[in-house]
Amino acid sequence: MTGNEIAHRDEQQAVATTPAGPQPTDGSTALMQWAQEADLAYQMAQKLAATSFVPQSLRGKPGDITAAILAGAELGLKPMATLKSIDVIQGTPALRAHAMRAVVQKQGHEIELVESTPEKCVMRGRRNGSDNWQTVTWTIERARQMGLLGKDQWKKQPQNMLVARCTGELSRLIASDALHGMPYVSEELEGTTTGEVLPPKKAPLSVAALTAPTPEPQPAVDEPAYSVARDDQPGGWDQNAIDDSVDWTPEPDQQ
Questions:
Q1: Rounded Cα–Cα distance for residues 174 and 127 (Å)
Q2: Is residue 126 over pLDDT 80?
Q3: Under a CB-based contact definition with an 8 Å cutoff, are residues 147 and 192 in contact?
Q4: Residue 153 and residue 161 in contact, taking contact as beta carbons nearer than 8 Å
Q5: pLDDT digits (tens, 9 = 90+) for 11-65
């Protein structure tokens, strides 16, 4: 056997005995697939960001549009349906009421509108396979107690707003697992969420503000006590208010 043949054989053995790299797991494969989908969604979002098909809260924001499309896909919504179904209010994504009912009903759960007027809304629903019905009631009086009636949409269309509130509350009761992290309807996030006032969004602190030393408290300075001259006395000035330690003798040229 020649030297070249021996070298070729050793090279083949080295390749055969080289340990293989880590094999992708099901989790990493799914993550890579999701990353590819996210990249495609972002390319799509860049083209749609300036169109009227995108709601105002997402317009011009391809990153937020991408997140909305991916979140909608997890709910079973197609991209264009997602853009008409999800709003971002105060930094929180939320489903519109009609979209939430569609997501819940698509999972086989039942939602029924029992009564709907400008003063009252009653809805009932039950999980897929359950015999127990859950009933939710929203009234104008309840909305008044929560301070909602001053809002523009409550003045214009109270009946629709009552239906939206019933939808959100009932969907959370019977099918919270179907909502995948978006448990509120858009109408609930316009200032309040289930009765709790949302705090105003604060500007993020800078690094300098976070790392700046806390200023030391300054010692209190004793202020000199001054007397207040009063002109309500017969002589004009209150003589008791004048400090006796001050020499009030006029100068010679003033006598």
A1: 5
A2: yes
A3: yes
A4: yes
A5: 666 555 555 556 667 667 888 888 898 899 999 999 999 998 888 888 999 999 9
What is the widest separation between alpha-carbon atoms in the chain? Answer: 136
For residue 55, give both structure tokens.
């709601």
Dist. CA 77–CA 70, nearest whole Å: 9
3-state secondary structure 187-242: HHHCCEECCEECCCCCCCCCHHHHHCCCCCCCCCCCCCCCCCCCCCECCECCHHHC
Hey, which bits of 90-209 come out as E strands? 92-95, 110-116, 120-126, 134-139, 192-193, 196-197
Residues 6+ apart with CB under 8 A from 204: none
DSSP 24: P
- 89 bridge partner residues: 92
pLDDT for the residue numbered 17: 56
Rounded to whole angstroms, the Cα distance separating 68 from 178 reads 16
Instruction: Please tell me the number of Cα atoms within 13 Å of 80 on its side-chain side.
Output: 3
Percent of the chain with pLDDT over 70: 64
Tokens of 4: 């070249």
pTM above 0.85, yes or no: no
Axis crossing angle, helix 26-48 with helix 62-74, rounded to the nearest 10: 130
Residue at 142: amino acid letter: R
User: Which of 75, 171, 187, 188 has its CA nearest to residue 125?
Assistant: 171
| Tokens 């009234």 belong to residue | 139
Report residue 168: phi and psi, to 5°.
Answer: -60, -45
**Across residues 159-168, what is the average pLDDT?**
96
